[in-house]
Write a structure and sequence with these properties.
- The complex is a heterodimer of chains A (362) and B (556).
- Chain A is an alpha/beta fold and 362 residues long.
- Helices cover 41% and strands 17% of the residues of chain A.
- The longest helix of chain A has 19 residues.
- Chain B is α+β, with helices and mostly antiparallel strands and 556 residues long.
- Chain B folds into 3 domains: 202 residues, 2-Layer Sandwich (Heat Shock Protein 90); 69 residues, Helicase, Ruva Protein, domain 3, CATH 1.10.8.50; 147 residues, 2-Layer Sandwich (Ribosomal Protein S5, domain 2).
- Chain B is built from 15 helices and 14 strands.
- Chain B is globular and about 125 Å long.
- The N and C termini of chain B lie far apart (70 Å).
- The chains are: A alpha/beta (362), B alpha+beta (556).
Chain lengths: 362, 556
């Protein structure tokens, strides 16, 4: 569906025409939008991914609570339609500024901050059944990759092992990248850019014959698509390294099962065979990280409680053990806590040992 | 040789009440010139209103302040009451602690009979002038004119003039007192006193001329006279041991049972027997021959036996409906709530609490609310901090009712809170009669009344604010329409103006349901899952919680 550009404009225009039709009939115009929330998410046991349910909500223009959001939806639709027509691309931030203006005769802005336009873009993806990249909207690039891999991107040949200290920045759209040569046994993904830099400095990918990938915080769609393609097309195992805390666990969960917000795109994003490498409660015990823990705050605990209840974790004994251990410990641990054992400890001892012994959580 | 005690005995002599108050005038509220001016007006007006009530006539009271020089005023108060018979005029105005009210268990403005004669005393003390009194008791009677002072040593009137005069009035009393005073505007001024008195006496007309010769007329808004109160006998729960001893001595009854039934309220033969049984006394014992130990047992039994609460017909509340009228005529606000509690008892004394709240309109938004306190329809302008009413208001949590409040302070917001206590005996903290003593039973009743009004206020505020928000949002549709038309025009290549016009037509059609707060579309649709609706839900839950809390509190 992503390859036929000629088909794209019609979907946004279809939306516009549908609304116009309702207006012509003298009806209060409305749009049906699938609900993006835990209440409308199911875990598909077959594919082991998070799926969007069938619940929809209606957004009306003449409704005191919906009006602005309705306006935003159509505004961004028009912006995207124009981008496609002019064959230009814009970032999420650009779209925010293209939509942002004060409505004449009021002190109300069409969008007040970027989360509003971002959310509307996600709605439009569901309404029109196409990704934001297909609507010519890109996210900022985020994340770095290094390894013995050669790719071709827009006619340029890029060697991931020869890009200095920064590595290759992963773009928001990786659909058109061609992999020319891959010499790696596995992929190591980590939540923290600082950890990636440390491993890159140690030439970890060279010594261990792997690809190292990082983001800063949440894994972007570009990274997730890149990982999925490498996993699907080259059958490379993927190991994920996150902080031992509820947010770290969720990063892993998103990569593996898909996210609640983008449940509709799980088949393009989720990678059910990724494994969790660390940090685990066993690591804390084995490597004596007790002195380097951070106390849990209230929001950590409530997030932990939520994650514990997710249907894809609920019956997983080894994960429930981690959750329970964290609750008992009352503390969390960052990946960097391993540095307390020396700056090379992670690269030279922790990771090789864990991978060799296959100490993973599934 | 004379002992020291003998020497002292020469100096020991009775001090007259007049002399005592001469030296302790602050006890009566005459401690500074501003307050003294207010006090004189107050004492005279209180007397006039009480007299009119007695006669069952709709009061019309003229108040005039004439400025003689910078710090000297003539206060003139004239009423259409029953007048005073000639022989009594000197005693009423020229003798302290003379009056008909001290001994009666009945609600009235003045209680001790100190008031007006204290004003006369204050006048003579600060200006040396005599007080002038006109009085006429009926259309065919002749009017009397007196000029008098007080003989402070003897506490007796000193009459300087006693004439018969013509006065073209059917009946009434007029008093002219010249005093040292200061006239200021504000919360504790004569102006405020007259205004507040007009609020709680909606059956009275006041014609007030201030020192700047400005004439203000406060018209009555009801012809309904205050309920006539009945005199009651003391209730056993309020009695003190010393008082009981005196009553036993003074009684005309020959048996204990008879004494209990005739000299107390709410005691019948059955209850009398029960009291005697509990005290291990016989119903036919002679009251005058009880031993101290027996009296003590009787006293204890009186407190412990279950006796019906005193009757409420000794009380004359303003009544919520008339209080509402009173507030509406003098306070320009958007919302009014009033409530009158049922009579309750403190120390055996019946009392009744009334509360009124005025909100919005011209009232100041940012400052603390204005608290108006009243006892038996008399405004209390001083000693707000020392008053039980203030305590009850500050201890009430006003946030659930829609007013701001920080800590245990008066709430802030555009509101007036009015509290009235009616009682046969209002417990003041001192003789200036400006602050109510802190009896728990009284504070509790005030709080309950405040909560009753608070709930009404909260419904109004929340509805009002929601309605305002709704109106604002509906107003926004007009502005959203061109924006939406523009987007749709870009998407569909249709003319913006055509779309805009059609949207405007739909808005007109949808307007009634939008204003009613209905959702603009199919009501069977599930609610929109946006942050906005989520927030609203939370707000609703919070509100419900507060209400249940309130119910619990009242339930106590």
């Amino acid at each position: 569906m992503k390859k036929k550009k000629s088909k794209q404009p019609s979907k946004l225009k279809e939306l516009g025409n549908n609304i116009l039709e309702q207006i012509n009939k003298g009806k209060n115009p409305g749009i049906d939008i699938p609900i993006r929330a835990l209440s409308n998410v199911e875990f598909d046991e077959k594919t082991k991914t998070v799926r969007l349910g069938n619940k929809k909500s209606s957004r009306y223009f003449f409704h005191v609570a919906h009006a602005k959001k309705f306006l935003q939806t159509l505004d961004v639709a028009a912006i995207s339609d124009n981008l496609i027509k002019e064959e230009k691309h814009a970032s999420l931030r650009d779209v925010f500024y293209m939509a942002k203006r004060t409505i004449l005769g009021t002190n109300v802005d069409v969008v007040e901050d970027q989360t509003e336009s971002d959310s509307v873009i996600e709605d439009l993806e569901l309404i029109t059944d196409q990704s934001r990249e297909q609507m010519h909207i890109n996210a900022n690039k985020n994340g770095s990759v290094a390894g013995k891999v050669i790719i071709e991107d827009k006619g340029d040949v890029i060697n991931w092992s020869k890009l200095g200290s920064g590595g290759w920045s992963i773009p928001s759209n990786v659909e058109d990248i061609k992999f020319k040569k891959i010499a790696a046994k596995y992929i190591l993904y980590m939540e923290k850019a600082a950890v990636w830099e440390n491993l890159h400095e140690h030439k970890f990918w060279d010594k261990n014959n792997c690809i190292i990938v990082s983001s800063q915080g949440q894994t972007t769609r570009g990274i997730r698509r890149l990982l999925q393609r490498l996993s699907k097309e080259y059958k490379l195992p993927i190991y994920v390294m996150c902080d031992f805390d509820a947010y770290g666990f969720y990063i892993y969960s998103v990569i593996k099962f898909g996210s609640i917000n983008l449940a509709a795109m799980s088949d393009k994003m989720a990678i059910p065979n990724v494994k969790y490498l660390g940090i685990t409660i066993e690591d804390i015990e084995k490597y004596g990280l007790h002195k380097h823990l951070i106390k849990l705050k209230d929001h950590d605990l409530s997030r932990l409680k939520q994650i514990k209840e997710y249907s894809w974790f609920k019956d997983n004994k080894s994960w429930q053990k981690q959750f329970e251990a964290m609750r008992k410990l009352g503390s969390k641990a960052e990946i960097q806590a391993l540095s307390s054992r020396g700056i090379s400890f992670m690269a030279e001892k922790y990771l090789p040992e864990k991978i060799k012994n296959k100490e993973f959580l599934d | 040789m004379a002992t020291v005690a003998d020497e002292l005995a020469k100096k020991q002599k009775e001090i007259s009440i007049s002399e005592f108050f001469l030296k302790n005038r602050h006890l009566l509220g005459f401690d500074n010139p501003t307050r003294a001016l207010m006090m004189v007006v107050k004492e005279a007006v209180d007397n006039s209103l009480d007299a009119c009530t007695e006669m069952k006539v709709l009061p019309e009271i003229k108040i005039e302040l004439k400025q003689v020089n910078e710090n000297r005023f003539i206060v003139i108060v004239e009423d259409n009451g029953p007048g005073i018979v000639k022989q009594q005029i000197p005693n009423i105005f020229g003798k302290l602690l003379y009056g008909s009210k001290f001994h009666s268990m009945r609600q009235s403005r003045g209680q001790q009979g100190i008031g007006i004669s204290a004003a006369v005393l204050y006048s003579q003390l600060t200006t040396g002038k005599s007080t002038k009194i006109y009085s006429k008791v009926g259309p065919k009677k002749v009017a009397h004119y007196f000029e008098l002072q007080i003989d402070t040593k003897k506490n007796d009137p000193n009459v300087l003039k006693d004439n018969e005069v013509d006065w073209d009035k059917d009946h009434g009393t007029k008093i002219e007192i010249e005093i040292e005073g200061r006239y200021l505007k504000g919360k504790q001024s004569v102006d405020e006193y007259v205004k507040e008195t007009a609020i709680v006496n909606p059956h009275a007309t006041f014609i007030y001329t201030d020192p700047e010769k400005q004439r203000l007329v406060y018209e009555r808004v009801t012809e309904e006279l205050p309920i006539e109160t009945k005199e009651i006998k003391p209730h056993p729960y309020g009695i003190e041991l010393g008082h009981l001893i005196k009553m036993l001595q003074d009684t005309r009854a020959n048996t204990l049972s008879g004494f209990l039934q005739s000299d107390f309220s709410r005691i019948g033969p059955q209850t009398a027997k029960e009291i005697c049984d509990n005290a291990k006394l016989k119903t036919e014992d002679k009251p005058k021959k009880l031993e101290p130990k027996e009296i003590e047992a009787l006293f204890k039994s009186l407190q412990e036996t279950k006796i019906m609460a005193p009757p409420g017909d000794c009380l004359s509340p303003i009544k919520a409906e008339l209080l509402d009228k009173g507030l509406k005529k003098e306070i320009n606000a958007d919302f009014y709530a009033t409530s009158t509690r049922s009579p309750a008892v403190y120390r055996g004394m019946p009392f009744q609490i009334e509360v009124g709240i005025a909100f919005g309109g011209e009232l100041e938004k940012e400052s603390q609310i204005r608290l108006m306190r009243f006892a038996n329809r008399v405004p209390l302008l001083y000693q707000q901090g020392a008053c039980a009413i203030t305590q009850a208001v500050t201890e009430t949590n006003w946030k659930p009712y829609g007013l701001q409040q920080s800590g245990n302070n008066l709430p802030t917001g555009p509101a007036i809170i009015l509290v009235h206590i009616a009682s046969v005996w209002v417990p003041f903290t001192n003789e200036a009669k400006e602050a109510i003593a802190h009896y728990e039973d009284i504070i509790k009743e005030i709080k309950l009344a405040l909560q009753e009004c608070g709930r009404k206020l909260s419904i109004y505020i929340h509805k009002h604010i929601r309605a305002a928000e709704q109106r604002e949002k509906i107003g926004l549709f007009e502005k959203y329409i061109p924006e939406l038309a523009n987007s749709l025009s870009n998407l569909t290549n249709n003319k913006k103006e055509v779309i805009q016009e059609k949207l405007q037509r739909i808005l007109k059609k949808e307007l009634p349901s939008l204003e009613a707060g209905n959702i603009g579309g199919d009501e069977n649709e599930p609610p929109q899952n946006t942050k906005e609706t989520g927030d609203k839900k939370i707000k609703h839950e919070k509100k419900e919680k507060q209400t249940t809390l309130e119910v619990k509190r009242t339930g106590k």
